[in-house]
Amino acid sequence: MSTVDPPGSNETLRHRAGRYIAQPTGYRAFYPAPLPPQPLPRLEGELQILLSHADRALGRLDGSIQTLPNPDLFVFMYVRKEAVLSSQIEGTQSSLQDLLAAEAHILAPDRPRDVDEVVNYVAAMNYGLHRLQELPVSVRLIREIHQRLLQGVRGIRLTPGELRVSQNWIGPGGCTLREATYVPPPPHEVPLALGALETFLHADSTLPQLIQIGLAHAQFETIHPFLDGNGRVGRLLITFLLCQREILVKPVLYLSHFFKQHRVEYYERLQAVRDNGDWEGWLAFFLRGVTSVSREATETARRVLALREDHRARVTIGLGRAAGNGHKVLEHLYRRPIVSVSDVQELTGTTYTAANNLVSRLVELSVLVETTGYRRNRLFRYQAYIEMFGGPSDTAEGAAT
User: Fold this and answer.
1) 21: Cβ–Cβ under 8 A, 6 or more apart, which residues?
2) Could you give the percent of the chain with pLDDT greater than 90?
3) Interval 191-238: pLDDT, tens
4) Closest-CA residue to 22 (of 173, 186, 194)
5) 265 contacts 284 by C-beta, under 8 angstroms
6) What digits encode the pLDDT tens for the residues 69-92?
7) Helices 71-89 & 46-66, crossing angle to 10 degrees?
8) Closest by alpha carbon to 289, among 309, 263, 268, 307?
9) pTM here?
10) Most exposed among 19, 240, 298, 352, judged by the fewest C-beta atoms under 10 Å?
11) Can 10-300 and 320-387 be said to share one CATH topology?
């Protein structure tokens, strides 16, 4: 694990992210200093190289998405992949397959109970992306997103959309405030800290955009303004800032993949900012994540394009006069990769028998895979496409509890 040396004396650095202050009841809470850090992060040496790599990787990703025939279909799966991974970091067990099944209204008996939380994440992201057209990233937008994220799920009792009015803390299950790994600022400090973060996001700055976004994510997690859902909202914040600042035209950077793979280091880097003022170490980690995930997403875009061309050729050659309806189904699968014969019948406007025959031929062409094993009410997956986003192996192994 490489490190980046920060500037200045140890004492100056230790407090540039904020200070721990003893509270009347005996525990210590962290009071974050406003952004940007003082002294500013030193963007030279390794950190400068990492920033260059991240900028280049993001540029290539953005360009590759714009070459796709219909980028929004590609985005559909990326939003869901991010929803699954970000939720798994917080302890959900639902996979991408579970989410797609839930959205297809498949009520399987073994469906994870927490899949609704992932469905909410998708809704919150889509709402936020639409809202950005009229409202910039702000405390107001953050609260609206939080309300949609927790609506009707396990966090409903924890005041969705409302800033906390009691003290929260982070640590092992069952630990007390005094035993906590980290205690965020007291509730009366939260509006002030969030207001300062919003000011930073809207202010003119000489810091590179990716550095600003990395600082903002860490600061939000440090403030921890809600009783639940802070991690998920904080990771959504990254996506919203990338899109609002037009660094990406589409939300196709799912950093939760990198954060989940390096979950322990993710939390350690955030804590090192609070304890030691190590903004450089966090930013280096963040930029490595941006580069890694951007490169992976670019490769996935290339593979999706190749898959689409291959399957379009199979449909054209293999279906003859039914190729027109076959192409309709194929394009639909990029938006809804699980279908029934009735779905295909409605999509193509044919008889049930004709739709059933079309589905059977798509199975023969290895475009669709029958997954239920039933004689009636069968369901078919666009498995090759789902697997490009980690479908079958997309489990919650290693998720936080």
Assistant:
1) 28, 29, 30, 31
2) 61
3) 999 999 999 999 999 999 999 999 999 999 999 999 988 998 999 999
4) 186
5) no
6) 777 777 888 888 888 888 888 777
7) 140
8) 263
9) 0.87
10) 352
11) no
Determine the straight-line distance between the first and last CA of the chain, rounded to whole angstroms: 25
Whether 347 and 329 have beta carbons less than 8 Å apart is answered as: yes
Measure Cα distances from 120 to 87, 102, 146, 152, 220 in Å. Answer: 10, 11, 10, 9, 20
DSSP 305-326: HHHHHHHHHHHHHHHGGGHHHH
Return the closest-CA partner of residue 356 out of 24, 100, 225, 364.
364
pLDDT at 166: 93
Length of the chain: 401
The domain segmentation of the chain, as residue ranges, is: 10-300, 320-387
369-370: strand order across its sheet:
338-340, 379-381, 369-370
Position 98 pLDDT exceeds 70: yes
pLDDT reading at 107 higher than 60: no
Considering the domain delimited by 320-387, tell me its CATH architecture. Orthogonal Bundle (1.10)
* CATH code matching the domain that covers 10-300, chosen among 3.90.1150.10, 3.40.50.150, 1.10.760.10, 1.10.3290.10: 1.10.3290.10
Binding site annotation covers 63? Answer: no
Q: Is 233 annotated as a binding residue?
A: yes
- The region of weakest confidence among 210-224, 319-333, 369-383 is 369-383
When pLDDT is averaged across residues 364-392 and rounded to a whole number, the result is: 82
Angle of helix 139-150 relative to helix 230-244, nearest 10 degrees?
130
Q: Rounded to whole angstroms, how far apart are CA atoms 220 and 140?
A: 14
Among 130, 188, 202, 224, the active-site one is: 224
Residue 339 annotated as part of some ligand binding site: no
Is 235 labelled a binding residue? yes
Contact assessment for residue 133 and residue 115, using Cβ atoms and an 8 Å cutoff: no
The secondary element (H helix, E strand) that includes residue 342 is: helix 341-348
Q: Binding residue per annotation — 312?
A: no
The tens digit of pLDDT for each residue in 252-278 reads: 888 988 999 999 999 999 999 999 999
Residue 356, classed as helix, strand or coil, is helix
Alpha carbons 304 and 285: distance in angstroms, whole number: 28
Residue 367 pLDDT more than 80? yes
327 given a catalytic annotation: no
290 is in an annotated binding site: no
DSSP conformation class of 251: -
